Each structure stands twice: as structure tokens, then as C-alpha cells.
Amino acid sequence: MALYHDCSIHELGRRAHEVTMRLHPEPYRTYVVDRNINYANYCTAKCIFCNFKADPPGMDTGRNDLPPGYVLSFEEIGRKIEELLAIGGTQILMQGGLVPADMLPFEWYLDLMRFIKREYPRIHIHAFSPPEIHAFHEIFNMSVRDVLVRLREAGLDSIPGGGAEILVDRVRNKIAQGKTTTEQYLHVMREAHAIGMRTSITMMFGHIESVEERIEHLRRIRDLQDETGGFTAFICWTFQPGDTPLGRAPQYPPHETAHPDGKHLVLADAHEYLRMNAIARLFLNNIANVQSSWVTQGVKIGQLALFFGANDMGSVMMEENVVSAAGTTFRLTEQQIREAIQGAGWVPQKRDFYYRAVDG
Description:
By secondary structure, the protein is of the alpha/beta class.
């Protein structure tokens, strides 16, 4: 909190970059070629920051702005993976909504993992966020560990950090009803790490949370990393209001210091993004990698983030549906990401999920 309130953005950037250079003194900065595949958009959660979900049959959240629901077939998912392989991709990030059990049985997810590993054995499957894993635990009456073990045996490689938002229940109760509590989210991550599965971890900020709650979010994941060591990377991004219900809430003036009341937004701009990215790099001394969020900030701020704590430009992201549904549509090809890294003075290095160098 002292860093946030007392340091200029330039001082924060300098300090964060010193830490980054100590952890990553090599002349290159990394990126990954992957594709987001949203296998279904039916969802029982009532997140007011999301325009991607569809209400399952028989459920009515009263919103008339939701898209039609879908579930991708294995063949459609296969075609998407083939398109990814054709451009040199190495992994898929696969997430869906919280789909009711009567729409997709647990065996469907296991069969999907087996199908991908059988047909595309070189693809790393980074799939099913903690809210999805927790939903499987609840609706299929299995322990979280059993869910994870069975998915891993079927082919799941790692878990994304989606659904974290802010890991403070005051915030989650207002913007993400029907999702996990903070403890439930962290329990999934703890169990994944316990069976040897690595995960990433995220933060979406710049809505109704206070700065203190952002720091509490960082503290919770820092403490869990001290316990398990299972997080490979931290990624933060700013809430994209678009035409979401949360985005239509009244706003405080920019950089307002009043404590959010849950009725007004305190939106975060690029300046605030760089500040929080730098603070995260300084505070999360036990997480090796920090990703730049050019997907929400654009390529120029994405480049600047490489001097504010980030050592990785994240994903080429051949396909992205959730953030774009809220109105943000930054896209880069692999060549453009390489040029962005070079333009910032670094050598671009393609990597895999575990931050190992990949040729080509």
C-alpha cells in the first residue's frame, strides 16, 4: 500500500524492472502461440461483467442481451486445433460456462480430453478454470481432487487462472454470484498443485474493488504460492466495461480515492494497469513469470509492461471470445508479437506453457 500511494509510476516501473532483470537477465522476452476455445457458453453463474454467457434452458436471469447458447462438437474443436497447429501453435486454453449436469455429463469432459490427446498428442491442454472444476465437484458429487485426477488421467495438463476476478468475497458476492467463493477458488488451486498440476493465476481489477482489496488478492495468491509453489505465472488485466451490466454502473471520477461502495465503478486506465503490474511484480516475489496484457491494453502498453514487471508478452491468442464480447478486440499475429518484442529492445522467444523455449 505504501508503494501504491507513495511511489510515482516511474519509480514503480524502475523498481519492478530491477526485479524482472534479476529473475530474467536473459536478452529475450517470451510469448506462446495458443488458441482460446470456449467449448460451451451455457452458464448458471450471474456475473454482471460478462456478455459471453447464455442462460441454460429453464434458467432466466432476466437479461435480454445474452447471445444464443451453444456446445461445440468434438469435430468443431478438432478443426480449431488443426488451424492452430497449422500456424505453429503448441497449446489450447479451453474454458466454458458453468454448464448444468443434465446438459453435459462428466463423461463428456473426459471423452473430450481423450479425443484431443488421441488426435493431437502434441497439444498442451490448459483447461477448466477453478469455478468450472468446483462446479464439476458440486454437480457430479465428487471431491475436487477426484475431479482433477480423473481429468488429468484423461489428458488435462494444466489449469488456467480464470474466474479469479478479485479474491475478496465482498467483491465476488456483488459481481460474480453463483461462482466460487475465495476459499473455494483457492481450494481448487491448492488441490491441483497437490497432485503435481501447475496453474496460472489472474486478477481482473478496475471495477468496484478498492486498492486494499487488490492487495489482499495478491496476498492470498502469494501465501498459496509459498505453500505449494504451483503457479507458473501471474496475469492481471483491467475490467472491460463494454455494454455489460456492470459497465453500465455510474462511475467515480478518474483516480478517485474514495472507497468503492459497490454501486460505482472506479475504472482503471493504462496508467493504473502499469502501476498494478509493477506492484504485482514487486509483491509476488515467489511467482517467476508475469505476463503483459496487450489483449486489453493494446500493443503499445503491452510493450511498456515489459519495463513494468512483465517478462512475457502472453499469447498470440488465435481466438478470443470472452473479452471481445465486452467490446475489446485487440489482436496480434505471431509476427506482430515478435515485432512488438523486438521494438521494445528484446529478442523474441517462443515458449511452451512451462516457459521452456520452443524452436520455430
